[in-house]
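PROTEIN DESIGN WORKSHEET
SECTION A - STRUCTURE
LENGTH: 507
TOKENS:
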């Protein structure tokens, strides 16, 4: 496998300058201003707006459209100096201007601009993105209190339930399309990534809808549009709201990105933030906090949604102190929480000589064992083969049992310090350990699925262990990684190594 661009750190795309962004905003506003604005009737027209026209759908859109934005991300610069933009959409999920969108809309750019429904152009900066989930969060640069489109729940959606999608299809401007929920729990594959828990909708989704909200009749965002299907009509896919909630902590990753630790976790499916776990040795362990407590405010600012706390801490720093307002049963109290420092994995000293490749061991287990996890697979399996292999290509191991588990062990070599995203796609279960800590847990008997983790790494070599098991069917397993700002791609074989004792290396 050729050396990876992500590990060579070659520039991939030209980053637009603030001047490019301002000029592009001016040109597009001139062309799209009329298309973007919601029509407002003159006083003399009010009698014509009968209750028959002012339907529940119209009322719902009056509340949700102001919190929907159109994104324009620098794509390329023509020979004449004209900057071309890639378009998409997003939804404001926090009053401070945090916008939820699809990762592929950003096109690896750290900045761009948005257009509001009024045609007002505003700059944004990237906060976080994870391509493996096709999710990203950006923040509007201009300070204001913005309208919010709440991220709802998707666990109780019904087939046939009416929905609307808002986006910027083919750059025509803010556009609303209507449809129904036509499928649940869909999966989609794109390259090395498998996204699960997607909603299928008949609402038309075209290029430019990506990142925009899918909204139910209650005005709640129940999905994020990520793609349509050019092969058929009325076939669009959106990442379900529950899945978005569950992976937002991995996307925002306050530990690796901001270097902070709070010492507790919240249940992302319950609003407001409700404590679901408290670390024994973390900053919260000595405070008057319990599992089940609800955190209603931070420094007096309300926290209406489970993900509100994560967004409040985007720019926080270790040793910074916050006042949490906590509800327990019918009582309310406050605690002072001082954020701790996040501990990143550390490289190890190398002993002996390094050779390319990982050591592997395969285990065969009987089909009738009913294996549903890695622990069961290794527990029921017998050692079938072992050796050294370049990379993590399971197809290169021949002969290989039909039902097997495999363990790779060695070192992951990081040439440059930075923020990395590592991901595993597998059918069935898989896990990755880095520096003897579980980094990615993709275990279980399931169809092809991608899980990812953001981690801050220094230059050096890290102990890595990767495990995978496959029951019936074809093996599907890949490991990808990239530094922030670079495209996702398979980790190159040259990045994996194993130590050879000096005496053995001399033979």
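SECTION B - SEQUENCE
RESIDUE ASSIGNMENT:
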């Amino acid at each position: 496998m050729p050396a990876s661009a992500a590990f060579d750190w070659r520039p991939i795309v030209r980053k637009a300058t603030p001047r490019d962004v301002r000029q592009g905003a001016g040109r597009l506003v001139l062309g799209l201003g009329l298309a973007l604005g919601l029509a407002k009737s003159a006083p003399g027209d009010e009698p014509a707006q009968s209750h028959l026209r002012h339907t529940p759908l119209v009322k719902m859109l009056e509340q949700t459209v102001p919190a929907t934005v159109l994104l324009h991300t620098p794509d390329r610069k023509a020979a004449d100096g004209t900057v071309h933009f890639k378009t998409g959409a997003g939804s404001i999920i926090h009053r401070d201007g945090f916008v939820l969108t699809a990762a592929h809309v950003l096109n690896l750019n750290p900045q761009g601009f948005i257009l509001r429904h009024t045609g007002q152009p505003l700059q944004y900066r990237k906060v976080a993105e994870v391509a493996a989930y096709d999710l990203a969060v950006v923040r509007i640069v201009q300070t204001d209190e913005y309208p919010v489109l709440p991220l709802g729940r998707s666990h109780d959606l019904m087939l046939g339930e009416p929905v609307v999608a808002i986006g910027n299809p083919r750059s025509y401007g803010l556009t609303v399309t209507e449809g129904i929920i036509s499928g649940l729990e869909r999966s989609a594959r794109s390259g090395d990534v498998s996204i699960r828990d997607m909603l299928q909708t008949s609402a038309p989704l075209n290029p430019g809808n990506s990142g925009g909200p899918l909204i139910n009749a209650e005005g709640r965002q129940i999905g994020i549009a990520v793609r349509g299907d050019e092969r058929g009509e009325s076939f669009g896919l959106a990442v379900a709201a529950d899945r978005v909630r569950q992976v937002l902590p991995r996307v925002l990753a306050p530990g690796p990105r901001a270097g902070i630790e709070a010492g507790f976790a919240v249940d992302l499916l319950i609003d407001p933030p409700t404590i679901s776990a408290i670390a024994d040795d973390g900053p919260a362990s000595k405070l008057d906090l319990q599992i089940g407590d609800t955190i209603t405010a931070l420094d007096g600012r309300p926290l209406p949604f489970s993900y509100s706390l994560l967004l409040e801490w985007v720019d926080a720093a270790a040793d910074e102190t916050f006042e949490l307002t906590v509800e327990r049963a019918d009582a309310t109290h406050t605690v002072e929480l001082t954020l701790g420092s996040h501990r990143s994995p550390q490289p190890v000293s190398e002993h002996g000589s390094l050779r390319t490749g990982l050591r592997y061991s395969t285990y065969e287990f009987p089909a009738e064992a009913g294996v549903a996890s890695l622990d069961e697979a290794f527990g029921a399996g017998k050692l079938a083969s072992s050796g050294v292999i370049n990379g993590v290509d399971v197809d290169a191991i021949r002969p290989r049992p039909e039902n097997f588990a495999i363990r790779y062990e060695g070192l992951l070599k990081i040439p440059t310090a930075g923020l990395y995203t590592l991901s595993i796609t597998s059918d069935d279960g898989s896990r990755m350990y880095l520096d003897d800590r579980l980094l990615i847990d993709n275990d279980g008997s399931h169809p092809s699925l991608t899980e990812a983790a953001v981690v801050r790494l220094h230059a050096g070599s890290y102990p890595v262990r990767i495990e995978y098991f496959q029951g019936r069917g074809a093996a599907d397993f890949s490991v990808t990684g990239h530094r922030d700002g670079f495209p996702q791609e398979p980790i190159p074989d040259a990045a994996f190594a194993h130590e050879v004792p000096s005496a053995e290396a001399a033979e």
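SECTION C - NOTES
The chain has four domains: 11-140, 162-245, 260-341, 353-506.
The chain has a mean pLDDT of 88.
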